[in-house]
Amino acid sequence: MKACRLFALLAGLAVLLCGCGPSPLERELIAYQHELADATGLSPPETSDVPNIGDFPERRSLTLEIPEVREGLLDVFALRGCHIANLVAQRNNQLGKTAAPSQHWLYELQLWRRLDHCMNNPAVDSLSPEDRERLARLTETKTRQLPLASYNALVASSEWAGSFSRASAVLDIDELTAVDAQLPALTYLTQAVDRQFDHQWQPDSGKLEQALKVLRDRPLSAELLRTLQLATLRLKEANGLLVSALANTSLPPQASCPLAEKSPSADLLLRQMERLLRQSRRWFSAMDQLLDAHLEGAAELQRYRSQWLSPSGADTPLVRFREVLDHHRLLRQQWDQRCVGDRDLR
Fold first, then answer.
1. Per-residue confidence at 18, pLDDT binned at 50, 70, 90?
2. 214 SS3 class
3. Which pLDDT score, from 0 to 100, does residue 232 have?
4. 335 vs 248: CA distance, rounded Å
5. Residue 151: which of 279, 316, 301 has the closest Cα?
6. pTM beyond 0.85, yes or no
7. Which of 148, 192, 268, 326 has the fewest CB atoms within 10 Å distance of its CB?
């Protein structure tokens, strides 16, 4: 066994014995780099430290202000046919004031639906002109404020912020099934926003809280971002090795040609990287749809989104990984083609 392969295996064994150090995926990527070094007759690349992901913006910089609407008790009583008095009382009591942002949105949703139903009900004709004007004004105000409430329900929740926790780990390839488990949560949250003005759709507090709980239970967004950054850096280092190898005028005597013939794990790792790309693209595309369903939101969210989350942005971890993986496939293909060409000349 070549010395660099032996070094990589011993390093991996040391990690297992001490219970610390690189993640299983990083050990696979480093072992792959050493296999490339064996195949090309070059020294393994120096590995760089993987930077952490960026800080998620603080809640106060994300939320949008919703002006309070104040009406006198007599004015609210005059609209008793709209059945909003009990909702207003619930919102103004101690539990209502300290409720989670998601519960504030459900309150605003119920209030808007009752006002809108009342506004389009024949019973509105029994109101005095002054009360009809008040009802129209309240309905218009709450129609305008409802998207603000649904936006705040998402960005002000601890569950949403927790999905981007920097205190997260790199995923192993087998853990990518977490995307399948958590995608329904993003789908439900998107549906809730898309259909909030649809009277035929009924909100479910339990489903809403469960969807947010799924995000809280595992910081999948952060784990995927960290995994993408790790894989991008290690593949970029491997690309540098292949570029140097291709710059040589002849193959070294010990070259593996094609690489997969003597290193079966080489193609396996590429398949793993393609799976990471597919699952990451599914997750961040679903998140993109969720954010698109909302208002554009605060500038801090737009900045974080364009820098870290967009599946089609200029320089997000997902886009960088896709580009580096595409380049790696090309370099592998060029290496194998060169091997075949040299064989034919012999």
1. very low
2. helix
3. 98
4. 11
5. 301
6. yes
7. 326
